[in-house]
Amino acid sequence: MKTSLLASDARTKKRNAAEARFKAYGLSAIVVAMLALAILLTSVLTNGLSSFQQTFIALPVELSAERVDKQGNRDPAEMAKTTTIGYAPLLRDAIVAEVERQGLTTEMSDKDLGDMISKEAAATVRNRVLANPDLVGETVTFDLLAAGRIDGYFKGRVTLESAALDGNTSPEALMIAQELADAGVIETKFNWNFFTAPDASVQRPEAAGLGVAILGSLYMMLVVLFLALPIGVASSIYLEEFAPKNRITDIIEVNISNLAAVPSIVYGILGLAIFINFMEFNQSSPLVGGLVLTLMTLPTIIISTRAALKSVPPSIRDAALGVGASKMQSVFHHVLPLAAPGILTGTIIGLAQALGETAPLLLIGMVAFVREYPAAYTPEAGLFGEASTALPVQVFNWTQRSDPAFVERASGAIITLLVFLLIMNAVAIYLRRRFERRW
Amino acid sequence: MSFMKLTATTAAIALTATTSFARDNVQVAGSSTVLPYAAIVAEVFGENFDYPTPVVESGGSSAGLKRFCEGVGANTIDIANASRAIRPTEVEVCAANGVTDIIEVRIGYDGIVFASDINGNSFEFTPEDWYKALANEHFIDGELVANTFETWDQVNPDFPAQPIQAFIPGTKHGTREVFEEKVILAGCEEGGFFQAMLDAGVDEDTAEGKCMAIRTDGRSVDIDGDYTETLARIEADTNGIGVFGLSFYENNTDKLQVATMNGIVPTTESIAAAEYPVSRPLYFYIKAAHIEVIPGLKDYAEFFVSDDIAGPDGPLAEYGLVSDPELLKVQETVSNEIVMGSGS
Q1: Which of A214, A383, B43, B185 gives 20 to 30 Å between its CA and that of A193?
Q2: Which stretches are transmembrane (chain A) (predicted)?
Q3: What pLDDT, on the 0 to 100 scale, is given for residue A222?
Q4: How many domains does chain B have?
């Protein structure tokens, strides 16, 4: 039977069809994966992008002396006795006056009008007055945070319908807010505070920020970098280049691979037992967090460093030894520089993994309400010894709060965390592309 | 280098980095119900005093008290928040670890409410309804038989034919204990089931245990997370009825509707007047040995129970705490550092 080379026979067709099918499977797998990513990103972005905006009320506040400085001595120590609770009526009077000045009429009580301003505002005003007692007696215009529900209205989270059912606001309050916004008193602008301010309690979602969490994460990454990188690289060089190949090194090797797969919560338990209970480091401190994450990241760094060292061809070592270099010289002058991009990539990926880790931090007290910025060093608490939180933990914390405004904050924190991870991974890829040599 | 050596090296480096372990902030842990209140107080405290803002952790009453009882020293917490009173067994553990002087501070009362999706059916419960719906076994004609109720109209003909689906706090929450005692056990007793068991010769402890055993066939789901998880479950399954703290419900009235209990709507007023039956006191416990050591600890405690904060017009009441009618006595306990068991 004659067959044409151009016409494919049944078997070729079958093989081609199998290939086409396989390609379709692969493509659909990618589509599913991309779809999952798209759904995740859309939900996070739609919920969270609004957290980068914040609603402010520009309010002239009359800082009357009888309210703020009862003794009249303009002494900050005496004036500090007036608490933020004492400042609240000041702000209430200010917004009532502002509503009148704008010619708006409302049936809302003065108290309800006052509740349109964030509880954080009293602290803002008080701090300004204490820092500058000369302001007492004058009328000063402050840019004050609007309450969470009012903020939610301008972001579309709160509507007139939901406000009617809501005990914490009312449609009247939203309508007044809308009229004040039309008059230019209420303004929504970019929210730098989200990145710098500390956490806030459930009554002030509008004031909550990531400042402490970002600082805590930064400290922990520093601890991880300065401990995990040298320890990891030193142990991999020794294991890969110097250690004899025998039973003991085999056991160590198996154990390291095994440790890389240990659930991270186990490191948290270990950290609690060793670093807090035995060595008595401070709870909730970035030092303990960093140490725990170091233990967790070490196997990752050792494995990737060993892979990078292995990928350097033996001919390089042989050539170095051949011209009279010692073993150590061959490793440090030739092998290590060639393996450096791989080591760096592994380290950055390990750091990124540590940055997003929550579980071990649960056990060492970092899932906490912390408002003080942790200092890098204090004589009392030592290096990185002050309480702090971390970015992923802040997300966890905020999703548990009862005020729905924290959902927006949590999504905003996720976006921030994702951006950090994206930057780290992009740097890792760039370094690999730029410096990696293939043989 | 073995892993143990690595660990030792890491530890050695860290040890040289940190030489002293003093702490200048108050450290608090415990009940997730008390957490929002404690955070509100910590925030205002940090704003108005020269001390650093206390660090408040969550994790549940039992977990908090366990850490509280671990011992005395800067690496242990100063205050444990609890949504139930400390148990005698916990006091013993505390004492065994050297935590002997404990100051008990009752900050007020919290209502436990039953809420469901705002667009669903509304309910008027009695504790007996809940016992019938959620008990693991019913005592019928002198025998314990498995609970077979599937819908609410089987429990009480007045209810709609909505499938029974309850989301109740998990066992690590203090709220669970209150739910079992004030709702399930109360329902068992009110319905006469408890008495029936006693009459049938069952001893009291066993009968109580049988009354409070919750069914495990999926009609009742334990929520170990926070109320936000309960809310998410109800949003996903609109037949669900969840157990919430009053304050959580009051912050989410646009999504939830609350059920009455014995015909009483839960509000701070009805709880303060003891009309609404399901409420419990909230506490925090201070380690007296830390008062001299940790700066600001006593000021924080006194500030917490001051009229400005915990009083009926304070921020805690505004968030949903039912103010303690005996607040003055609580304030004296704190300012005089009266420890538990000292007889006063």
Answers
A1: A383
A2: 24-45, 218-239, 259-279, 285-309, 335-356, 410-431
A3: 94
A4: 2
Q: Are B268 and B291 in the same domain? A: no
Q: Which domain holds residue B19?
A: 3-109+281-335
Indicate whether this complex's ipTM tops 0.95: no
Instruction: Please give, rounded to a whole number of angstroms, the shortest distance from the CA of B211 to a CA of chain A.
Output: 32
Return the pLDDT at B344.
46
Residue B102 and residue B121 share a domain: no
Probe site for chain B from A78, A82, A83, A87 (most B CB atoms < 10 A): A83
Per-residue pLDDT, averaged over B122-131, amounts to: 91
Cβ(B165)–Cβ(B238) under 8 Å?
Answer: no
- Chain B residue closest to A130 (CA)? B48
Q: Which of residues 231-270 of A touch B (CB under 8 A)?
A: 231, 234-235, 238-239, 252, 255-256, 259
B342: in domain:
no
Angstroms from B182 CA to nearest CA on chain A: 24
Among A283, A300, A394, A397, the residue to mutate for chain B (most B Cβ within 10 A): A283
- Rounded to a whole number of angstroms, the distance from the CA of A256 to the nearest CA of chain B is 8
Tell me if B324 is assigned to some domain: yes
Comparing CB atoms, the residue among B56, B73, B228 nearest residue A368 is B56
CB contact under 8 A, B20 and A365: no
Q: Are residues B146 and B261 in the same domain?
A: yes
| E strand spans, A78-216 | 139-145, 186-190
Test A203 with B17 for CB contact under 8 angstroms: no
**pTM for this one?**
0.85
Least Cα distance to B83 among B54, B57, B115, B109 occurs for B109
Domain ranges of chain A: 52-207, 211-435
State both tokens at A384: 């990185």
Same domain for B137 and B273, yes or no, is yes
Residue in A298, A302, A297, A193 with CA at minimum distance from that of residue A239: A302
| Residue B167, beta-bridge partner list | B221, B242
Which fold, A211-435? MetI-like fold (1.10.3720)
Conformational region of residue A102, where left means phi above 0, alpha means psi within -120 to 50, and beta covers everything else: alpha
**Tokens (6 digits) for A183:** 């008059």
Minimal CA–CA distance to B64: which of B96, B32, B36?
A: B32
With beta carbons less than 8 A apart as the criterion, state whether B95 and B68 touch.
no
Tokens describing residue A336? 């290590």
Q: Which tens digits make up the pLDDT trace of A298-320?
A: 999 999 999 999 999 999 999 99
The CATH number linked to B327 is: 3.40.190.10
User: Mind listing the pLDDT tens digit for each residue in B25-78?
Assistant: 899 998 888 999 999 999 999 988 989 899 998 878 888 899 899 888 888 899
